[in-house]
Amino acid sequence: MDPRPLLFWHEPSYRIIGDKSSIPTKEDLKIMNLIRYQAPNSTPYTALDRWSNLRDELNSFFDMPFWSGFNRTGQLFTGWSPALDLYESGDHFVAVIELPGMRKDAIDISLHDGTLTISGERKRETAKNGEAAQRTERYVGTFRRSIALPTRVDPAKVAATYQDGILKVTLPKAEEAKPKQIQVR
Amino acid sequence: MNTLTRETRESDRAQAEQFITPPASVTEIADGYMLEIEMPGVKKDGLEISVENNELKIIGRRSLPAMEGTLIHCESCPENFRRMFEIDPSIDAEKISAKIDQGLVTLTLPKAEHVKPRKITVS
User: From CA A71, how far away is CA A64, in angstroms rounded?
Assistant: First the structure.
């Protein structure tokens, strides 16, 4: 096989958008590392699922436009890891997570010590009489994503919406973290 | 000659819309198949499902709202989704139905009447 797919596993798992040529700062790396944290998945089934997904994972790598293939880590070794985007504006952060086909009450959002954690579970549907899975690419089980926010947020004002399979968490910055204009007298 | 070549290439590039392949699951149910495809961010009117030459094609175009602020970390792909399947001859293409709920497309592909098991009564 062409050795190129191996590149996939050695490429850094994150990319800073906006300025591709810039080297991530120490602060950026701290954030990214935390974002990348994955709780080990302990169910015995997922291990099997991961291997059976190896082919699909490699296939989908080639199906993606070249530049975006590196953008997303394979979920082969980490379990279910939904794509997460983080936006920052003057007075708030918005975390956007792709969670297709979830129930609202199966999503858990918590904020602790400046770290936003989004976790959830999709239950394996028990096969009814006469049902047989032919192909399983969708992840079942639990996921957990954590983001250490670069500045303090106001926990009382955090709000979340779930629409079209996309979870959006809005985190207003704490008063002291908002940018301020200082008047010269 | 040069101009002609370039024009062809440019039009090719314009036509080559890039897609990503979303995860899909296929389950055999009582009288057919159920196909589930994950297309987060796709609304009902962004979904395009067609059957041509025994090929089922599902395209999901995202209508993502413009976000305020700068993107400081990105893992999602902005491309639209496309998935293609070859349909088994036992499926009745006329009766395929689809729905979308929270970014999950569910297609029901019933088996054609003539392939269903039938009991023949002795007269």
Answer: 10
> Could you say which of B25, B29, B70 has the minimum Cβ distance to residue A87?
B70
Ordered by where they begin, the domains of chain A are 4-125+136-176 (2.60.40.790)
Residue A163: predicted pLDDT: 93
**HSE value, Cβ hemisphere, 13 Å, CA-based, for A125:** 16
> Which CATH number do you get for residue B107?
2.60.40.790
Sheet order of strands, B19-20 included? B19-20, B80-86, B55-62, B42-52
* Residue B64 scores a pLDDT above 50: yes
Calculate helix-pair angle for A44-52, A54-63, nearest 10 degrees: 50
ipTM over 0.85: no
Chain B window 91-120: which residues touch A at a Cβ cutoff of 8 Å? 101-104
